[in-house]
Recover the amino acids of this structure.
């Protein structure tokens, strides 16, 4: 007679981390409680940005990396959106430039002062309007300057030229359902997307074609950074947490 295992075996089961002291943490930040699948945080060598609760619109806080400890509730924020902020991403080519996507259907790009914020920042460098529904994903191109990708709940992906505030590529026929996440390849020639239809796609935005596609059969599959292959995380058909790695030639992770 066999019995089902109640506890799954894991070599990490009894591994515990040591928490740092309070004065080395960022304390008393009112992180946003909006229902969206986002990390609500972005970091670069100079600043930490955190999406926070805000009344009458959306906001995020930008702190110098070394400014740890309790954060005053009156600390200035970036607060130009009229709806909650859903995603933020630092520019890889300029540590003072950050992009944000919001429920107000816009993407905004901000210039953070050299020493951080001393007063609320309400005017973006540029506002990008092209989505008809809330924008939940913003991600900068890894190699080309002033190139930003956004994806909205209208199932549309737009690649922008931030310098001119113009659309470079408007991809509106590749995703039949909500886009969960997007990740550029290391050279920026392709991007990988995870969709609610349980498919992961490799897209060439310049040609406007899906290079490869595969139905994962998973509830959720989030593509992460990839080089010659592709790495995804999500859930199996049995709702078990999963990670998968596969070459681009497969079409998708398997």
């Amino acid at each position: 007679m066999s019995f089902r295992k109640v506890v799954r075996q894991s070599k990490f089961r009894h591994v515990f981390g040591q928490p740092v002291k309070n004065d080395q943490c960022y304390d008393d930040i009112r992180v946003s409680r909006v229902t969206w699948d986002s990390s609500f945080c972005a970091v670069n060598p100079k600043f930490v940005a955190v999406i926070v609760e805000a009344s009458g619109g959306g906001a995020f806080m930008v702190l110098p990396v070394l400014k740890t400890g309790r954060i005053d509730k009156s600390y200035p924020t970036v607060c130009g959106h009229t709806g909650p902020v859903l995603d933020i991403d630092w520019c890889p080519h300029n540590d003072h430039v950050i992009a944000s996507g919001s429920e107000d259907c816009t993407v905004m790009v901000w210039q953070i002062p050299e020493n951080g914020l001393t007063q609320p920042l309400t005017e973006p460098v540029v506002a990008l309007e092209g989505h008809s529904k809330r924008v939940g994903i913003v991600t900068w191109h890894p190699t080309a300057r002033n190139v930003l990708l956004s994806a909205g709940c209208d199932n549309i992906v737009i690649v922008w030229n931030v310098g001119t505030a113009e659309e470079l590529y408007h991809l509106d026929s590749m995703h039949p359902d909500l886009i969960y996440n997007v990740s550029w390849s290391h050279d920026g020639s392709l991007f990988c997307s995870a969709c609610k239809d349980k498919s992961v796609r490799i897209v060439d935005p310049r040609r406007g074609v899906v290079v490869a596609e595969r139905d994962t059969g998973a509830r959720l599959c989030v593509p992460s950074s990839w080089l010659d292959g592709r790495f995804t995380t999500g859930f199996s058909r049995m709702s078990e947490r999963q990670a998968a790695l596969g070459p681009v030639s497969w079409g998708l992770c398997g």
